[in-house]
What does this fold into?
Amino acid sequence: MTSTPSKPYYSTYAIVGFVLAFVLPIAGAIVSTIGIRDTRKNNLRGHKLAIAGLLIGIIVAVTFIGTGASGVFN
It folds into this structure.
């Protein structure tokens, strides 16, 4: 009887993309996209984390651009 191997490791791209989505949203969205591909290609954990990072990065970037929040730090 054979069993399917478990997914032992999280994708580093998925984790980094999720964290970057809060700090640098555009970079977080890009790295999360790489993380989505990495989880599928290499059968790694973190696919949902990468999707969350992508969505958060897009939402935060659009919010900053839409509200002109770049002037907040001046």
Remarks:
- The chain has three helices and no strands.
